[in-house]
Amino acid sequence: MKALFSAVFALVSITSAFAIHPPDSLLRLSLKGKNTYEQVNLMCEAAVWWRDKGSFDSAQAVLNQAMTRAKEKSDSASVGLVYYHQGGVNWRMGQYEDARISYQKSISIRQELSDDSGAASSYINLALVQRDISNYDASLRTLRTAKELYQELNDSSGLADVLTLSGGVFLRLNNYDSASSNFHNALSIRHFMSDSSSIASSFTNLATLYKTKGDFDSSVFYFNEALSLQKRLGNKSNIAFTYLSLGGLYWEMKDYHNAIDNYIESLRIYEKGSDKIQTALVLENIGLIYRDLGNIDRSLEYHNSVLEIYKSIGNPLRESIALNFIAGDYLTAKNYTKALDYYKASYTIREQLNNKQLMAATCNSLGMVYKNLDISDSSHFYYFKAYDLYTDLGDLRNQAATLNNIANLKWKINDVDSTMYYFKMALASRQLIMDVQGEGYTMLQFGQFLMENKKNKRAYDMAIGAFNISQQINDWTLKKDASLLLSKYFETVGNYKQAHSYFKLYNESQEALNRDETIKRIADMEIRFEHEKRVQALERKQFEIELKDSEIKQKNQRYYYMLGALVLLMGLVVTVFIAWRQKIRTNKILNLQKQEIEAQRDQISSQNEKITDSIVYASRIQKAMLPPESVINNLFPDHFVFFKPRDVVSGDFYWVHSENNYRVIVVADCTGHGVPGAFMSMMGVSLLNELTGQYSSFDAAKLLGSLREKVRINLHQTTYTDGSSNDSIDMGMIIIENSTNKACYAGGNIPLWVYRDKTLTTYNADRMPIGIHIGEEMSFTNNFVQLQKGDTIFMFSDGFPDQFGGTRNRKLLVSGFKKIIESIAETDIEKQATLLEKNLQEWKKDTRQIDDIIVLGVKI
Questions:
Q1: Is the domain of 820 the same as that of 765?
Q2: What is the pLDDT of residues 693-748, one digit of tens each?
Q3: Which CATH number belongs to the domain containing residue 470 in this structure?
Q4: pLDDT score of 791 more than 90
Q5: Residue 468 domain-assigned?
Q6: CA separation (Å) from 63 to 37, 73, 84?
Q7: How many C-beta neighbours within 10 Å does residue 346 have?
Q8: What is the mean pLDDT of the chain?
């Protein structure tokens, strides 16, 4: 049953057998198989490996070989096995009709051979194909057949699997009672079998059920039950998946802090296990959270990272998905031109893979973008192309959704008859497949169209239908819009009491949605130097002096007026004399105050000058600790250093060293900038010097680990707590063997880029600094790179990518910085620092530099 379960879900992870034997090894082993079935089975395992990598052509080629061998030997069991795996490849490619035919052939052969267990497995996968094209009745009938076979076989594990899958189909139909019954029955069987891993899966299914129902407390409870059980079992992959699921739940609850925390926990496990695809899936979700928060720059940053991962592992299918995410980011930002570019790039890949399901999805997205651009002909073309593809696939749910899109397009271009026709088609289709939520939104939009065209009675029928569905599925957005439509209807017919009642419901729904949308944006806090505060204090004192001067002048003016009045008012001589003496005393006091303020100003000015002189002198000390130009030229004749502190002194630094047959380069970014960062940088250089004698070990990761320990000892760091010293250093270190140009790189938050043959390759750093940090402390990772003559290596701090600028005053980001490096990498190495300065100024213009910047490049 474990093998069946793997086939049923067709997950990304591969079995341990695959990890031990890559496809070529499996094919070689197949030649030594004891019999035809064993040989064909090994070939099918190789095909599954290629399928899970997204290399469908390779998978198909292997399956063709397996089918040839099975038919040559007239081995029916082997033919049935190949058809079974052929169905899996077709299914993953979105070729649902071909998948259905393959599974049917597999079932026929296995039934002829009385292989009830194999037939049940084929029935289960056939049911999943039927589910994915929204043919839920057929899917449930097929699952009942599989259930009967498992009951005859007395196979409790298989029976529990069927109940679980049936519950999933009922969940899609919003039939929560039937879904709950099936999930609980499966859980009871698994409890009886004491199958802890499957019990945890049942907890996850129940959590998903309650999440869909909107019962978030129950959902959290069952996810935590699953997580607790998975931790006891020690299954890292399942633990990570449960954290990922919890993150999705908290995201839906608008609890972004807990969502990110759980995604990060999942990410750490997947990264530690080197599971790049699952790592990318977590990053996709984090990117979507930032999109939800309106932070499109961060969302793009994450989704571009996902794209790089999929490119690096050569998975074009997943690459097309990443392109769709990036297109979605631009669509959300209403940058329709960029969205079109990425959707078209995605479609090109999907067309090459002949994945009709994903081609259709991208066509729908292209139709939407062209609709927003008011290019109705292109929108019409892509919507109908999507509809034709879904029709070929027999995907009823997405057919209905596309019909709804076409209706909205026709409405926008004022084609009343066509709008009416396509809304009717969409509504009938969604009612046929029992897509309750889709039915509700089609009724709402159809009702809005009818109301606009004065067909009030029919508009009411649609509006009340949409309202009732919103109550049934607890959809606040649908309820809000349906309530507003009903309020408008009753207003038109003069029933103001009902109009007021529904408008009140509209306001209540709007308030509920507003509460959900109360989101705090992430803001960066800038810290000023102490001497800048003193300058501000000096300016305030100077203002006070000027104010006192003004007061003296005003008092003197009044005094002269009184003298003039003395001539006219001789009778008031005594009074004026007394007033004059009083003025004299007041002026003396004011002059004394003025002298005191001027003295304070001079003192502050002197202190400020001393502080400035001290900082300037500190910058000389810091520069003296950096490698002299002669040393760098001797070790790396072709190099550049673009070093641009934000203030006089810097928290960024670089360091080079030669030891035996090895050369070392370090680029570092310390916590903070200015004076605090400079103190950290000096400590960092000192600690690097203390490691002299260890660099010839050619183990950069170990050296970073030793450095981390020294930092923690020097800063008395034990655990990460608020208020304690949590300072740290981001660092990248590369050790190059002189005789072979073989390099060992390790990094904490500072990556290595290698430019070769007009291609920039990224070697990612570990996501932790040198020093104390939140989360589990892990060893750093070595990356071994065979450098070639003509290669250029780059290491840099985050100052350049994080700089604000451009027309929209946003961050440049790593993706933008990468484009700059690619644009200058072919020029002479000594000119590249100047070009970086030019690019920086063009980007930031009058924007203040926000952080220290260092970029170091070396040509091999």
A1: yes
A2: 788 788 999 999 999 988 888 887 766 554 445 678 999 999 999 999 999 999 99
A3: 1.25.40.10
A4: yes
A5: yes
A6: 13, 15, 10
A7: 25
A8: 84
Which has the closest alpha carbon to 645: 620, 614, 608? 620
pLDDT band at 405 (very low <50, low <70, confident <90, very high): very high
Q: Residue 518 pLDDT > 60, yes or no?
A: no
pLDDT(117) > 70: yes
Higher pLDDT: 577 or 142? It is: 142
Give the pLDDT confidence score for residue 545 in this predicted structure. Answer: 54
The verdict on 403 and 485 lying in the same domain is: yes
Instruction: Spell out a b/e string for 12-38, using b for 16 or more CB atoms within 10 Å of the CB, else e.
Output: bbeeeebeebebeebbebbeeeeebbe
User: Is residue 775 domain-resident?
Assistant: yes
691, 656: one domain: yes
User: Using CA atoms, how far apart are residues 804 and 844, in angstroms rounded to an integer?
Assistant: 6
In angstroms, the CA 734 to CA 687 distance is: 17
Q: Are 526 and 672 in contact (CB under 8 A)?
A: no
| Residue span of the structural domain in which 406 resides | 396-494
Question: What gap in Å lies between CA 586 and CA 578, rounded to an integer?
Answer: 12
**The predicted structure's pLDDT at residue 689:** 85
pLDDT at 534: 39
Output the six-digit token pair for 152: 């005859």
Q: How far is C-alpha 853 from the geometric centre of its chain's CA atoms?
A: 26
What is the model's pLDDT at position 446? Answer: 95
- How many domains does the chain fold into? 3
Handedness of CA 124, 129, 130, 136 (dihedral sign): positive
Tokens of 462: 């649609």
- Domain at 728, CATH number: 3.60.40.10
Query: What's the pLDDT band for 484 if we cut at 50, 70, 90?
Result: very high
In this structure, the chain runs to a length of 860
pLDDT(336) > 70? yes
Report d(CA 240, CA 227) in Å as an integer: 9
Domain annotation covers residue 704: yes
Give the tokens for residue 195. Answer: 């199958």
Confidence of residue 301 (pLDDT cuts 50, 70, 90): very high
Measuring CA to CA, how many Å separate 356 from each of 160, 364, 429? 33, 12, 21
Long-range contact list for 233-241, CB < 8 A, 24+ apart?
A: 233/196, 233/197, 233/200, 235/197, 236/269, 236/272, 236/273, 237/13, 237/269, 237/273, 237/275, 237/278, 238/197, 238/200, 239/269, 240/265, 240/266, 240/269, 240/270, 240/273, 240/275, 240/278, 241/266, 241/278
| Three-class secondary structure of residue 793 per DSSP | strand
Q: Are strands 804-805 and 639-644 parallel, antiparallel or unpaired?
A: unpaired
For 569-624, give the DSSP string.
-GGGHHHHHHHHHHHHHHHHHHHHHHHHHHHHHHHHHHHHHHHHHHHHHHHHHHHH
pLDDT tens figures, 155-185 = 999 999 999 999 999 998 888 899 999 999 9
Residues 642 and 551 in one domain: no
pLDDT in tens, 248-260: 998 888 777 788 8
Give the separation between CA 783 and CA 704, rounded to whole angstroms: 13
Claim to verify: residue 446 and residue 478 sit in the same structural domain: yes
Verify that 829 and 734 share a domain, yes or no. yes
25, part of any domain? no
Q: What is the 3-state secondary structure (H, E, C) of 8-28?
A: HHCCCCCCHHHHHCCHHHHHH
The burial of 258, by beta-carbon neighbours within 10 Å (0-12 exposed, 13-18 middle, 19 or more buried), is given as middle
Q: Radius of gyration (Cα) for the chain, nearest Å?
A: 36
Tokens representing 623 are 């520069």
Among residues 589, 622, 655, the one where a domain terminates is 622
Residues 617 and 683 in one domain: no
Residues 614 and 636 in one domain: no
Tell me the pTM: 0.55
Q: Check residue 566 and give its pLDDT.
A: 58
- Range name among 5-14, 128-137, 200-209, 288-297 with the lowest pLDDT average: 5-14
Among residues 606, 622, 638, the one where a domain terminates is: 622
Helix or strand holding residue 728 (H, E): strand 728-737
